[in-house]
Amino acid sequence: MKVAVVGATGLVGTKMLQVLAEQQFPVTELIPVASEKSVGKPIEFQGKTYHVVSMQDAINAKPAIALFSAGGSTSLEWAPQFAAAGIKVIDNSSAWRMDATKKLVVPEVNAHVLTKDDFIIANPNCSTIQMVVALQPLHQAYTIKRIVVSTYQSVTGTGVKAVEQLMGERNKAADYPMAYKYPIDLNVIPQIDVFLENGYTKEEMKMILETQKIMGSNNIKVTSTTVRIPVMGGHSESVNVEFEQDFDIATVRNLLSNAPGVVLQDDVAAQVYPMPLWAHEKDEVFVGRLRRDETQPNTLNMWIVSDNLRKGAATNAVQIARYLLDNHLL
């Protein structure tokens, strides 16, 4: 099976290659793709050396699947061309997520919506992915009415430049790039992406709209505040979720313990709870700090952590590819 990775030299593209290898995805030939300036650059994968090729050369090579992580404008231009050549595109940008003709997929939640006719499949926003994985089993049991989420997001979600800014500040380097308007070390920035007319950021609106689309219900009300913090291991989220039906905490724990892709870390007596330090390089979504909201009925507080480059991006994309393969949708 030929597999193309578009944006193979970037943070997420590099992680896609790592996850493909770790999960023993049956890649017979890798087609690494990047910008024109990177064409010819060597890429090591499973003991072999491949060389970065151009977009058109990748299409001509006829891979079965192309994992895209090269930005929205690149996806808008090239994903349809790959799809027209019969190549299944799994796109990590925001380009296609809210397109009514494209599926937005988190395998643990809604892989069943995929068909053979889906040639461009959208990978959701990282912060949305981990939240819906944790909430899906509870939604099935109690029906979600409203979600209030505040995020604590890793600088890796911005990219290499942000990591270099954080480490430059931390190490008091003489020179380093500024990915943010303000210092990030010893700071918290309550803005991710640009502000919109309603006062929310694009990242906040992504969480609102994508959650409804993935979970298949516009009746779920979502409000979000997204925040950048100086960590690198993953994204954390404080989630307050109101249900239509009442719940029992013991049953909630049991549902989460048995949910696909979820690891329950909820033992406050032993000070066990999810942290990005422990989620780093893991594929699961970690959930803890479960407790009833005592100010209103049928409402639960929870803390959700996941590695944003893995489950929030690369792993989710590879899981979609695996689903397509296992269910003969290629």
Structure characterization notes:
The mean pLDDT is 97. The strands form three sheets. The chain has a six-stranded parallel beta sheet, sandwiched between helices. With 330 residues, the chain is of the alpha/beta class. It folds into two domains: 137 residues, NAD(P)-binding Rossmann-like Domain (Rossmann fold), CATH 3.40.50.720; 182 residues, Dihydrodipicolinate Reductase, domain 2. α5 runs parallel beside α7 and α5 packs across α10. The protein has ten helices and 14 strands.
Summarize it.
This protein has helices at residues 11-22, 55-60, 72-84, 107-110, 126-142, 160-170, 202-215, 249-257, 276-279, 310-326; strands spanning 2-6, 29-33, 42-45, 48-51, 65-68, 88-91, 103-104, 120-122, 144-152, 221-225, 235-243, 262-264, 285-292, 299-306.
Relative strand content: 15-25%
Runs in which pLDDT lies below 50 for 5 or more consecutive residues are: none
The span between the termini is 11 Å
DSSP summary: helix tally? 10
Order of helices and strands: EHEEEHEHEEHEHEHHEEHEHEEH
What would you report as the Rg, rounded to the nearest angstrom? 20 Å
Secondary-structure arrangement, i.e. CATH architecture of the largest domain: 2-Layer Sandwich
CATH class of the largest domain: Alpha Beta
SSE-based structural type:
alpha/beta
The outline comes out as globular
Question: Widest sheet: strand order?
Answer: 2-1-5-6-8-7
Largest sheet data: 6 strands, parallel
Care to count the β-strands?
14
Average pLDDT, to the nearest integer? Answer: 97
Overall number of domains: 2
CATH superfamily of the largest domain: Dihydrodipicolinate Reductase, domain 2
CATH topology of the largest domain: Dihydrodipicolinate Reductase, domain 2
